[in-house]
């Protein structure tokens, strides 16, 4: 019982790491605004770029990437530590190398959920792209760099952040499935990538209708607000 309670505590920490509302805090600290009332309403780095500028967006992007990586690093430290502390208690028979990847997988998913459904923002947030990149870099840096390269190429050609984000997610799924990685890590990337794409469903509709803004353009939501 103690083991499972402590394991749930570890997942809660992963969620809280992910739920740190970086973009929201940037808006409050730099301009005293709620960034959810501006632009697309997202707390992600793209909306921070539109609303606050390049340097705040860069800082938010970096911290959000670190959030994803931090959740993985925490899980890799916490669960072996827990295993050592509770070595004489059930389920001590569990092999650390067997269940640790599953614990890391769950912690990563918790961090993604926290980023997009933050407890501090009434369970709203960003689209988990930057946090997802942090997860990828922490569990398999080649996959992370491959996804980042795809994002960069797509952004350079089309200048559409959402398109680059979704294609980067698909690239990560393809790469993790083609490399020798534990099954839980593959599931983490597949489920996480699918979640990122689902979070972009409004962007998909705008892409299909030709209404998705390019980098440097205002969001459709901000244009509608300015005309109302």
What's the layout of helices and strands?
Elements (H helix, E strand, L loop, with lengths): L1 H18 L2 H10 L13 H8 L1 H32 L10 H21 L12 H11 L1 H18 L2 H18 L4 H17 L1 H9 L10 H8 L1
Helix pairs in contact: 1-4, 1-5, 2-3, 2-4, 3-4, 4-5, 4-6, 5-9, 6-7, 6-9, 7-8, 8-9
Structure explained in plain terms:
The protein has 228 residues and is mainly α. Helices cover 75% and strands 0% of the residues. The protein contains eleven helices and no strands. α4 crosses α6. Residues 222-228 have low confidence and may be disordered.
Question: What keyword list fits this structure?
Answer:
globular, 228 residues, 0% strand, disordered C terminus
